[in-house]
From TrEMBL:
NCBIfam families: CM_P2, PRK11898.1. Pathway: Amino-acid biosynthesis; L-phenylalanine biosynthesis; phenylpyruvate from prephenate: step 1/1; Metabolic intermediate biosynthesis; prephenate biosynthesis; prephenate from chorismate: step 1/1. It catalyses: prephenate + H(+) = 3-phenylpyruvate + CO2 + H2O; chorismate = prephenate. It comes from Actomonas aquatica. The lineage of its organism: Bacteria, Pseudomonadati, Verrucomicrobiota, Opitutia, Opitutales. PANTHER family: PREPHENATE DEHYDRATASE P PROTEIN, PREPHENATE DEHYDRATASE-RELATED. This is Bifunctional chorismate mutase/prephenate dehydratase. Residues 281-358 form the ACT domain. Keywords: Amino-acid biosynthesis, Aromatic amino acid biosynthesis, Cytoplasm, Isomerase, Lyase, Multifunctional enzyme, Phenylalanine biosynthesis. Catalyzes the Claisen rearrangement of chorismate to prephenate and the decarboxylation/dehydration of prephenate to phenylpyruvate. Its EC number is 4.2.1.51, 5.4.99.5. It is found in: Cytoplasm.
Length: 361
C-alpha cells in the first residue's frame, strides 16, 4: 500500500509547497494594501470587501470542497492578513468561551487579538475610546428575541454597525456528575429559556439558577457537586468539564445574531446585498396622531425599500415615548434610501443611521 500511496503523497506535497508560496504572496499583497489604508486613514477591516471575496471564491468552487469549508479557510487567511496589516484587537461580551466569543472567532479568525469585556455598555466604551478596534455584541436570538441592553446603548453612541454574524447556538448539559445526580443547573437566563422544555422533561426537580454568563456557569458547576451548567461545548472544553448531554436546546434552528461595531462605517457590498439599521423617534405624534407609525413607514415602502425588522423601546426620557429600531434592505448611500431619509427627517424628531453592512455573514 505504501508503494501505491507514495506518488500521491508526493503530488500532495508539491501542491502544499506551491500553496504555501502563493499564500505568502497573497499576504504580502495584503500588507501592501494595509500600507495604503494606513496612509489614507482607511479602515483595515472592510466587511464589504470580505463579503465580496467570500462570494467570489465560492463562485469559483467546483468541489469537492463545500462552500462552508472554503469560507472557513478564507476567513483564516483574511484573519492573518488583517493581523499583518495592523495589530487588531477585537472586544467581545465575555467571559472567555461564551457564544459571543465563538461568534467573534467565526468572524475574525485566530490571528487577531481578543479581549473579554464584562458588559455591553463597556464594549461600546472600549471602541469609542480606541481601546479596541471593533466590538462584537449579541443583538437578538431567534427563540428569545432581542437583547434590550444592546439596543438601548445605540441611543447615545456614535459607533456604526459594520458587519453582522449569525451563529447557530447549540447548548449542552455540562457537569462532572451524571444527569441523575444533578440537583442544580446554572446558566445565563437566555440560555435557560432556550432549553426550558428539555430541562422540564429531563431534570424536573433541578433548581435553575441564573449566572452572569454561560461560561461562568460552567466554572461554577465545575466545583460544585450535583451542579451542572447549560452552555456551548467551547465553554466545556475551555473549563475542562465533560459534556453529559449534547444539543439540549428546544429548537434545532436556534440562532443568535451578532453585530460588529466600529468607528467608521462600512462601504456598500453592491448588488443589493446590504442591510441598513436606523433608530427613529416619532416624538409626541406617536401617541397623539392616528396612523403615525404608518406615516413613518410610507417613505420606505413607496421607494421599494423592504422592511425586515421593527422594534420599539422606551426612550426613558418621558412616559410613553418610544424609539423604533428598524432594519431595511439596501445601503445608506443608495439614492432611494437618501430620498426616504430626507422625507422622514421632515416629520421625525430623530432619524439616526446606525450602520450599513453586508446581508450574509
Amino acid at each position: 500500500m505504501d508503494d501505491a500511496l507514495a506518488p500521491i503523497r508526493q503530488k500532495i506535497d508539491a501542491i502544499d509547497r506551491e500553496f504555501v508560496r502563493l499564500l505568502n504572496e497573497r499576504l504580502e499583497l495584503a500588507g501592501e494594501i494595509g500600507k495604503v489604508k494606513r496612509s489614507s486613514g482607511g479602515s483595515i477591516y472592510a466587511s464589504e470587501r470580505e463579503d465580496a471575496v467570500l462570494r467570489k471564491v465560492c463562485s469559483w468552487n467546483d468541489g469537492p470542497i463545500k462552500d462552508e469549508a472554503l469560507r472557513a479557510i478564507y476567513r483564516e487567511i483574511m484573519s492573518a492578513a488583517i493581523a499583518l496589516e495592523k495589530a487588531t484587537k477585537i472586544a467581545y461580551l465575555g467571559p472567555e468561551a461564551t457564544n459571543t466569543h465563538a461568534a467573534a472567532i467565526k468572524k475574525f479568525g485566530a490571528s487577531v487579538d481578543y479581549e473579554s469585556i464584562a458588559t455591553i455598555a463597556d464594549l461600546f466604551t472600549a471602541v469609542e475610546k480606541g481601546e479596541a478596534d471593533y466590538a462584537v455584541i449579541p443583538i437578538e436570538n431567534s427563540t428569545e428575541g432581542s437583547v434590550r441592553e444592546a439596543l438601548d446603548n445605540f441611543v447615545e453612541s456614535d459607533l456604526k454597525i459594520v458587519a453582522q454574524i449569525y451563529l447557530e447556538i447549540s447548548h449542552a448539559l455540562i457537569s462532572n456528575d451524571s444527569p441523575e445526580k444533578i440537583t442544580k443547573v446554572y446558566s445565563k437566563d437566555q440560555a435557560l429559556a432556550q432549553c426550558r422544555n428539555w430541562l422540564q422533561r429531563h431534570l424536573p426537580h433541578a433548581q435553575l439558577v441564573d449566572a452572569p454568563s454561560t461560561s461562568r456557569a460552567v466554572e461554577i458547576a465545575k466545583n460544585e457537586p450535583g451542579a451542572a451548567a447549560v452552555a456551548g461545548e467551547l465553554a466545556a472544553q475551555f473549563h475542562e468539564v465533560p459534556v453529559q448531554v449534547h444539543n439540549i436546546q428546544d429548537k434545532s434552528d436556534n440562532t443568535t445574531r451578532f453585530f460588529v461595531l466600529g468607528k467608521k462605517p462600512a462601504g456598500s457590498a453592491g448588488d443589493g446585498r446590504d442591510m441598513t439599521s436606523f433608530l427613529i423617534s416619532l416624538g409626541d405624534q406617536a401617541a397623539s396622531h392616528s396612523g403615525a407609525l404608518l406615516k413613518m413607514l410610507m417613505p420606505l415602502a413607496e421607494r421599494g425599500i423592504n422592511l425586515s425588522k421593527i422594534e420599539s423601546r422606551p426612550s426613558k426620557k418621558r412616559p410613553w415615548d418610544y424609539y423604533f429600531f428598524v432594519d431595511v434592505s439596501g445601503h445608506y448611500t443608495d439614492l432611494n434610501m437618501k430620498a426616504a431619509l430626507k422625507e422622514l427627517s421632515t416629520f421625525c424628531p430623530m432619524v439616526k443611521w446606525l450602520g450599513s453592512y453586508p446581508v450574509v455573514s
